[in-house]
């Protein structure tokens, strides 16, 4: 309440809820999940106008199923991008992981195959991290070099599908609980662990600090090199989980499992759509999952409409560029503050000195 001349009281408009509402809508995580809702509604309308039915039980199951492998890779990619690094070797690591899993499972030892794939993935992630931090090679070049090494080994060793996945393990790729694939539970479990690591542990805080300002983090006592290495290892472990899922889905190892799906670029696109900054220090797993869902929804709509692949890629590119442009804009409060600071230039401060506002007068 505010007292006005004449003794009457005038109510003050409650601005806080409005400000909080604007803050939530401006949150990239909220924005990407709202975008997923918009794509769902738009897809339903467009497919219905074309004579189809978008929101069927089988369609929803397919969207969730197609989100698992990309979601696992993107969750790992988001952790490494948070530190300001990158991993372009994920596609070939997925392919190699399916081959190793299928070949080892052919003898019937499923547990050993799982451990071998995860150990291989961790070793590749460790190598990437050590090259980036120890040899001071740019992450783009370092992981691209690793990708070429993996590609060379795959092309020299395999000419086609290899190994065989037993029926017991293939249930991971095909079993459902109602209309929800069992593999979605794997994605949720990995995403929850990644969220807890990034948001609730010291390691996660160090990831954000390293990506935000590596020099300042180092001065604050953060072992930035160790943090980047650990992020790469965690990323590759997520990729190993995706390889195991695809092996269960395909029933054998496939040299093209990761490259045909372009998990390297697709995972980066999902991370960017989720609001994670490529420079690091901002974003998270929740937004990444929203980005994965948006891409899967777009793919489902395009497939039902039989859209030309060229046009499909054009639309996806426009969506990604628009999302990056939107998230790159500073908040409205920051823009207003910037205009105010620019307006203060050249004005005398409290001490009378031009261009030094706020300086207190001495003696």
Give the topology, please.
Blueprint: E1 2-3, E2 9-10, H1 15-26, H2 28-49, H3 57-82, H4 90-105, H5 110-134, H6 139-157, H7 167-174, E3 176-177, E4 180-181, H8 182-200, H9 202-212, H10 214-219, H11 224-250, H12 263-273, H13 285-305, H14 309-328, H15 332-344
Antiparallel strand pairs: 1-2, 3-4
Helix pairs in contact: 2-13, 3-8, 3-9, 3-11, 3-12, 3-13, 4-5, 4-6, 4-11, 5-6, 5-11, 7-11, 8-9, 9-11, 12-13
Would you mind describing this structure in some detail?
There is one protein chain. The protein has helices at 15-26, 28-49, 57-82, 90-105, 110-134, 139-157, 167-174, 182-200, 202-212, 214-219, 224-250, 263-273, 285-305, 309-328, 332-344, and strands at residues 2-3, 9-10, 176-177, 180-181. It is mainly alpha-helical and 363 residues long. Helix 8 (182-200) packs across helix 9 (202-212). Mean pLDDT is 86; it is low at 1-23 and 339-363.
């Amino acid at each position: 309440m505010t007292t006005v001349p004449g003794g009457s009281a005038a109510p003050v408009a409650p601005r806080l809820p409005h400000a909080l509402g604007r803050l939530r809508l401006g949150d990239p995580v909220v924005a990407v999940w709202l975008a997923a809702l918009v794509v769902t509604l738009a897809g339903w309308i467009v497919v219905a106008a074309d004579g189809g039915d978008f929101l069927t039980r089988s369609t929803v199951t397919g969207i969730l199923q197609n989100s698992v492998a990309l979601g696992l890779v993107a969750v790992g990619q988001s952790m490494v991008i948070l530190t300001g690094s990158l991993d372009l070797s994920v596609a070939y690591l997925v392919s190699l992981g399916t081959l190793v899993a299928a070949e080892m499972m052919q003898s019937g030892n499923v547990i050993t195959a799982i451990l071998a794939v995860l150990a291989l993935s961790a070793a590749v992630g460790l190598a990437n991290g050590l090259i980036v931090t120890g040899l001071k090679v740019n992450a783009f070049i370092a992981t691209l070099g690793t990708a070429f090494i993996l590609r060379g080994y795959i092309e020299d060793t395999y000419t086609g599908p290899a190994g065989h996945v037993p029926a017991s393990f293939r249930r991971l790729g095909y079993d459902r609980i109602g209309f929800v694939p069992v593999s979605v539970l794997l994605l949720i479990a990995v995403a929850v662990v990644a969220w807890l690591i990034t948001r609730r542990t010291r390691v996660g805080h160090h990831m954000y600090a390293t990506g935000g300002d590596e020099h300042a983090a180092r001065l604050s006592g953060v072992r930035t090199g160790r943090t980047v290495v650990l992020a790469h290892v965690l990323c590759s472990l997520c990729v190993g989980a995706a390889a195991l899922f695809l092996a269960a889905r395909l029933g054998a190892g496939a040299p093209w499992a990761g490259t045909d799906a372009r998990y390297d670029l697709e995972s980066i696109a999902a991370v960017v759509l989720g609001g994670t900054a490529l420079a690091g220090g901002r974003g998270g797993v929740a937004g990444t999952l929203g980005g994965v869902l948006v891409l899967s929804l777009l793919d489902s709509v395009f497939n039902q409409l039989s859209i030309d692949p060229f046009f499909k890629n054009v639309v996806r590119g426009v969506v990604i560029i628009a999302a990056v442009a939107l998230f790159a804009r500073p908040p409205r409060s920051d823009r207003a503050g910037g205009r105010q600071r620019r307006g203060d230039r050249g004005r005398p401060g409290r001490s009378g000195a031009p261009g030094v506002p706020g300086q207190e007068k001495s003696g």
